[in-house]
Amino acid sequence: MSITSDPDPAPAYVAATATKPFDAIPDPVVIVDDGLRVVDANLAAVQFFGVARDEWIGEVPLALVHREDVALVLSSLEEVQKRSGVGTPIELRVRAADGTWRLVELVGRTMTTPDGPRTVNTLRDLTERRRWEVAADEPERFRRLVENAATIMMLSDSNGRIQSVSGAVTRQLGLDPSAVVGSWLVDFVATSQHERANAEIRAAREHQGTRVFELELRHRDGRAIPYQISVVNLLDDPVVSGLVISAHDISTRRDLEDRLEHLAAHDALTGLANRTRLIDHLRRSRIRAAADPERLLVCFLDLDRFKAINDLHGHDAGDRMLTHVARRLRNAVRPGDFVARFGGDEFVVVCEDLDPGSAEVLAHRLETVVGDPVNIDGLTLQVFASVGCVDGTVSEDPEELLAGADDAMYATKLRRRGEVRPHPLPIAERRELADLLRRVLDGDPRGGALRVHFQPFVRMPSAEPCGVEALVRWEHPEHGLMLPARFLPMAEEARLANQLGGWVLDASLAAIRRWDDAGIATGVVAVNVAPAQLFDPSLPAVVTGLLDRYDIDAGRLCLEMTESSLMERDEAGSTSLAATRLGALRAVGIRLAIDDFGTGYSSLVHVRDLPFDLLKIDRSFVAGVADGTIDAGICAAVVALAHGTGKRVVAKGVERADQHERLASLGVDGAQGYWYCRPGPAEDVEHLLRTPAPLARTGNG
Question: In a 3-state reduction of DSSP, which class is residue 468?
Answer without folding.
Answer: strand
